[in-house]
Amino acid sequence: MRVLLVCLAGLLVCLQTADSHSLPQKDYETDSSKHDITIPLNDTSGNNSSSVPDNSSGNLDSNITTFIVRYVYRKDKKESMGIYAHKNGKIKKILEDGLAVSDWSPKSRTYLGNKDGIYVYDTETEKLEKYGNLSDSIIEIVKENRTDDLYILTEDHVVYKVTEEGTKKIKVNEAEHAEKIALDWDENLYYIGANNQPYIIASDGAKKIEGLPANPTSASISRPPITIEHGAWFMCEKQPYIIYPNATSEPYVFNDQEKLEYEKRNRAVEAIFLQVWNQTEE
Ligand SMILES: *[C@@H]1O[C@H](CO)[C@@H](O)[C@H](O)[C@H]1NC(C)=O
Ligand SMILES: *[C@@H]1O[C@H](CO)[C@@H](O)[C@H](O)[C@H]1NC(C)=O
Ligand SMILES: *[C@@H]1O[C@H](CO)[C@@H](O)[C@H](O)[C@H]1NC(C)=O
Ligand SMILES: *[C@@H]1O[C@H](CO)[C@@H](O)[C@H](O)[C@H]1NC(C)=O
Ligand SMILES: *[C@@H]1O[C@H](CO)[C@@H](O)[C@H](O)[C@H]1NC(C)=O
Ligand SMILES: *[C@@H]1O[C@H](CO)[C@@H](O)[C@H](O)[C@H]1NC(C)=O
Ligand SMILES: *[C@@H]1O[C@H](CO)[C@@H](O)[C@H](O)[C@H]1NC(C)=O
Ligand SMILES: *[C@@H]1O[C@H](CO)[C@@H](O)[C@H](O)[C@H]1NC(C)=O
Ligand SMILES: *[C@@H]1O[C@H](CO)[C@@H](O)[C@H](O)[C@H]1NC(C)=O
Fold it and tell me: Does the keyword Metal-binding apply (predicted)?
């Protein structure tokens, strides 16, 4: 089945809608990663820039940059069709072979993972630059909040910590065949393994998070909203959970206000997504 998957990186909702009614038939899936909106719920950072305009059209603040990652599945592998940046109503393709957008970018610098290493995109100057000298093919990238260190997940499912301005990488041996990675606000690293189950990397090795469904068909992981101080966000068959560094978990229940906010955001991202689609249709 063809599906439109709207995923807000670092945000809370993955919306899956069958596209047959709302969208033209297309032989690919697309993932959209939102950026600059780093705070999915209430902005407690003292900055208003990430709040969703109270508008039923669901438009995002035009001055923020939204990243859209387009890809197709070929033989169960994601193949990039480019990373696009949307700002002030305009869309441009910024990378040809990228699949990864960092979920957290203070100082307007967003890290992107490409087939040939790491790039950094400045959302203010709209300039793209190669970052460091690594040349791995990257499928996920996350940034620590307190440092400039990154973690990357490569195409062969190995996790590395990247330090010294992108010039040094250290393999994270505890993460075995990672499918997805995420950090929480305390800089703990989590990953989803081949079994769709999340693990926390503790000082004494990787620990499986307990209290979650046994055989989920889908799972995603991300930095939690800023209102959640500890733990990471885990989404499993449309049910969100907070997973903790002590390897426990609990389901998260949206309140009405949150539901509303997510719906708005999803509409906004979907609108941008359609625009990308429209503009890139040959
Ligand atoms: C948010 O913006 C409003 C008006 O645009 C302003 O009155 C308010 O002080 C701002 N809040 C913060 C926390 O910056
Ligand atoms: C709010 O965001 C703008 C643009 O990202 C930034 O220039 C400004 O310093 C931020 N203000 C605060 C109080 O964080
Ligand atoms: C809200 O929508 C109205 C009409 O659809 C538009 O004129 C207005 O600029 C929008 N406001 C914002 C903040 O997007
Ligand atoms: C957009 O953001 C930049 C940087 O934060 C700021 O300098 C500029 O004035 C903003 N533009 C609008 C239209 O709000
Ligand atoms: C992110 O890092 C800054 C700077 O160290 C810190 O002040 C802030 O509390 C951190 N944010 C969170 C949510 O932990
Ligand atoms: C990247 O640069 C660092 C420092 O200049 C150097 O030590 C390292 O060998 C380089 N790595 C690669 C993969 O070229
Ligand atoms: C694990 O950590 C969470 C969040 O800090 C806490 O609420 C919970 O009680 C802890 N559980 C155990 C078994 O330590
Ligand atoms: C966001 O902040 C407003 C006002 O401070 C509050 O009424 C609302 O409940 C908050 N929403 C969430 C989801 O925390
Ligand atoms: C897509 O393009 C068509 C025709 O060019 C236009 O009518 C429609 O509004 C566009 N849709 C979006 C979401 O931009």
Answer: no
**pTM for this entry:** 0.72
Domain boundaries, the chain: 2-162
Average pLDDT, rounded, for the chain? 76
Place of tokens 């480019």: 82
Asked whether 167 lines ligand 6 (CB < 6 A), one says: yes
Cβ–ligand 4 contact at 124 (below 6 Å): yes
User: Which ligand is in closest contact with the Cα of 24?
Assistant: 9
> H helices of the chain, where?
256-280
Q: How far is CA 230 from CA 22, 50, 89, 221, in A?
A: 38, 21, 35, 14
For ligand 8, atom 5: residue with the closest CA: 42
231-278 confidence digits (pLDDT tens): 999 988 778 899 999 999 999 888 887 777 777 776 777 777 777 777
Q: What DSSP string describes 136-170?
A: --EEEEEE-SSSS-EEEEETTS-EEEEETTTTEEE
Site to probe by mutation for ligand 7, drawn from 209, 230, 248, 250 as the one with most ligand atoms within 8 Å of Cβ, is: 248
Strand bridging mode 30-33 / 66-74? antiparallel
